[in-house]
Design a protein that fits this description.
CATH topology of the largest domain: Photosynthetic Reaction Center, subunit M, domain 1
Radius of gyration: 26 Å
Strand order of the largest sheet: 1-2
Order of helices and strands: EHEHHHHHHHHHH
Distance between the termini: 84 Å
Helix content: 55-70%
CATH architecture of the largest domain: Up-down Bundle
Shape: globular
Number of domains: 2
Structural class: mainly alpha
Length: 319
C-alpha cells in the first residue's frame, strides 16, 4: 500500500477530510475486522460500516426517498388489507399505478393515481438531490464530478419514462407504475404496443451498451483481482512502472485480443458504455408512440427487415 500522503489542491477546502468530526455525520464509523462478518467485509476490501456523510443534499435525498418509500409501501399494503403475510407473499406483484388515461395530465383523486403523482414527485426530488450530492462531494474533495455526469445518464431514462414522454403524449397513464412486476409488464407492453422493440435501433444500442459495460467491468475486475498479488490494485503507483501487476494485466489483453487497454482507458470504455446505455434507451423510448408507432413497419421501410410477403409457390418437376 502506498505511504504517500494524500493532499488536496491549495484552493480546495480540507474540512471534509476530518473524518473524526461530526459535521454532517451522525455518530462514528464502525470497523469490523474479526469474526465471520469481518472476514466477509475484508474479502471485499472494506470493513467499515457507517456512517456516511449526509450534509444538506444527502438529508434531502434520504428524506424524500423515505417519503416515496413510505407512500409506495403503504398503498401496496392497503391492497391486501394491511395483512403482513399477504403483503410479503404478493409483494412482487403489488403496484402503485399512475392515473387512468381519462384524466390526461390533470390531478386525479388519491385512490385513482393521486398517490402515484405524490410518490413520483418525492422520488424525483430524491434523485435530483442525490445528483447534487454527488457533485458537491466530488468538488469538495478536489475530484472531477464524473460520477454525477454518469448518474445523469440514468436520470435521462428516468425522466423520459415518468415525465417527458407522458407530457408529450398528454397522459400520465403512459408512465410506468411503481412495482417490481409492474415495471417488467410495462416494458413488455410498450414493446408490443409499438411494434416490437427488437426493431428499435436505439433499443439495440442500449442493450449493446448494457451488456458491453457488464463485460468490460467483469473483464477489468477479474484482471485486477488476478494480478492483485503483484499490487495491480495500486494502479496509480504502478501505471508507469515496468514488471508490475498493471503492466502484466495490460500485456495479457494486448496478447489476447490485440488491443492495448490500459488502467486508464478501460475505465473510460466502461464509463461511456454504461452512460450510453441509459441515454440510448431514453431516446428509443421517447420516439415510441410520439414519432414512431410501429417499429416493425419502420424496420421494413428502413430496409433492415424483410417485407412480410408470402413466399413463391414451389413447382416440383414432373416425375
Amino acid at each position: 500500500m502506498s505511504t504517500k500522503e494524500f493532499r488536496l489542491p491549495p484552493e480546495r477546502p480540507t474540512t471534509d477530510l476530518n473524518i473524526g468530526g461530526v459535521n454532517g455525520r451522525w455518530g462514528g464509523p464502525l470497523f469490523i475486522e474479526k469474526g465471520f462478518i469481518g472476514k466477509v467485509l475484508t474479502f471485499f476490501g472494506e470493513n467499515q460500516i457507517g456512517p456516511l456523510y449526509l450534509g444538506l443534499w444527502g438529508t434531502i435525498a434520504f428524506a424524500s426517498g423515505g417519503i416515496f418509500l413510505f407512500i409506495w409501501l403503504l398503498t401496496m399494503a392497503s391492497q391486501v388489507g394491511y395483512n403482513p403475510v399477504a403483503f410479503v407473499k404478493y409483494f412482487v406483484v403489488l403496484q402503485l399505478d399512475p392515473p387512468p388515461s381519462s384524466y390526461g395530465l390533470s390531478w386525479p383523486p388519491l385512490e385513482e393515481g393521486g398517490w402515484w403523482l405524490i410518490a413520483t414527485f418525492f422520488l424525483t426530488i430524491s434523485m435530483l438531490a442525490w445528483t447534487v450530492r454527488l457533485w458537491t462531494r466530488a468538488t469538495a474533495l478536489g475530484l472531477k464530478p464524473y460520477l454525477a455526469f454518469g448518474y445523469i445518464g440514468a436520470l435521462a431514462l428516468y425522466f423520459v419514462i415518468y415525465f417527458i414522454r407522458p407530457v408529450i403524449m398528454g397522459s400520465w397513464a403512459e408512465a410506468c407504475p411503481h412495482g417490481i412486476k409492474a415495471l417488467l409488464d410495462w416494458t413488455n407492453n410498450v414493446s408490443v404496443r409499438y411494434g416490437n422493440f427488437y426493431y428499435n435501433p436505439f433499443h439495440m444500442l442500449s442493450i449493446f451498451f448494457l451488456l458491453g459495460s457488464t463485460l468490460l467491468l467483469s473483464m477489468h475486475g477479474a484482471t485486477i483481482w488476478a494480478t492483485e498479488k503483484y499490487g495491480a490494485h495500486e494502479e496509480i503507483e504502478e501505471i508507469e512502472a515496468p514488471g508490475t501487476g498493471t503492466e502484466r494485466a495490460q500485456l495479457l489483453w494486448r496478447w489476447v485480443m490485440g488491443f492495448n487497454a490500459n488502467a486508464y482507458s478501460i475505465h473510460l470504455w466502461a464509463y461511456w458504455f454504461a452512460w450510453l446505455c441509459g441515454v440510448t434507451g431514453a431516446i428509443g423510448l421517447l420516439l415510441s408512440g410520439t414519432l414512431v408507432h410501429d417499429w416493425f413497419q419502420w424496420a421494413i421501410e428502413a430496409k433492415i427487415n424483410y417485407p412480410q410477403v408470402l413466399p413463391p409457390d414451389v413447382i416440383l418437376p414432373p416425375q
